[in-house]
Amino acid sequence: MIRNFIFSVLLVWSLSVSQASIINEKGEIAPQVIKIYSYFTHGPVLDNPDKISEWSDFAQKNFLRPKSSERLDKKAISHYKQLCASLPLDDKKEILNQFNQLGHIDTINPKSTTPNHILIMGSTVQNMRKRIMFLVKLIKDQKINITPETKIVALVGERPLFESETESVLLDSSPYETDPTWKAPKNLPSDEREAARFIWGQLKLPEILRKKGLHFVDTEKKENESRAQTEDCIQTWLKIDNVKGEVTMISSNPYVGYQQSVAKLAIKKAGLENEVHLEGVGSAASFEEEDIEVILGLLLDNLAREIYTEKQIKELG
């Protein structure tokens, strides 16, 4: 029943929803975020929409998944369920609605049709396929035009593949077509960086992308980290490339807003905020394998990370 509800409302939402920001023009927390918080707290935090540090502190304490846990491991799922289990179903539905108004669920299409740079963000094998094929769709739909000057970059980091990224997942590109000339290598990838190259060769892509090619920017993880983080990958790219103009960052929901904020933070730290205009785009979130409490937990965890990043941006001035 929950799955049917989610699919039905996503169909309706996709007709009318556009991307919003969790921070408005005045530098205040957006009303959708205030509404989401109201289901979990009362009092001072809700009375101070301009004090982002207070909102971030609350989210870090309550919404963030346990440290060192991945998004869908047992510890994280237990946290999500505990966070949302007591909410009535109608409240859960309304929180989903608020997240969709923020642009965290539906497809986000680009406003710029001729970007100077296109970034494809690294992720799981399944998500990287989805992101590459989303770019293919944008090109076919003429929402992005590839010019001789366009640079297409994959930002990938040091990360061992998860247990879910199995041999069968690697070898089966469905629901996307496999390039008829592609042959699987003898040794399959064991790391995100290897997997990105594997996927690019595996997928059936339009000739314009094959001719253009994909430049891979690899980032090593920091000491004591389990993997390279998004900001690490952006910083590596900014150091080695001459980045100016329009940048279209391809992610996938519910992570478009968060990764866009992280990229903007890295750009600001590099002193390039006046030279680089970045927008995040991506396909709609896929929730068919999760129950509503896990979905809400994922969204809340992601919101906590986005608010923390926006706080850092504000602190830079």
Q: What would your notes on this structure say?
A:
Helix content is 45%, strand content 10%. It has a 5-stranded parallel sheet, sandwiched between helices. α4 crosses α12 and α6 (125-140) packs across α8 (192-202). The protein has helices at 2-13, 31-38, 52-62, 74-84, 89-101, 125-140, 167-171, 192-202, 207-212, 230-240, 256-269, 292-316, and strands at residues 117-121, 151-157, 215-219, 245-252, 276-283. The radius of gyration is 19 Å and the shape is globular. It has 12 helices and 5 strands. Residues 1-5 and 7-18 have low confidence and may be disordered. The chain has 2 domains: 2-106 and 291-316, no CATH class; 117-283. It is α/β, with parallel strands linked by helices and 317 residues long.
Shape: globular
Q: Report the β-strand fraction as a percent range.
A: 5-15%
**Based on DSSP secondary structure assignment, what is the total number of beta strands?**
5
Output the structural class.
Answer: alpha/beta
Secondary structure: helix percent: 40-55%
Largest beta sheet: strand ordering: 3-2-1-4-5
Q: What's the total helix number? A: 12
Separation of the first and last Cα atoms: 47 Å
What's the assembly state of these chains? single chain
Q: Which sequence of SSEs, written as H and E, runs from N to C?
A: HHHHHEHEHHHEHEHEH
Mean pLDDT: 89
Can you tell me the residue ranges where pLDDT is under 50 for at least 5 consecutive residues? Answer: 1-5, 7-18
For the sheet with most strands, the description reads: 5 strands, parallel
Using the CA coordinates, give the radius of gyration.
19 Å
Summed up, the domain count is 2
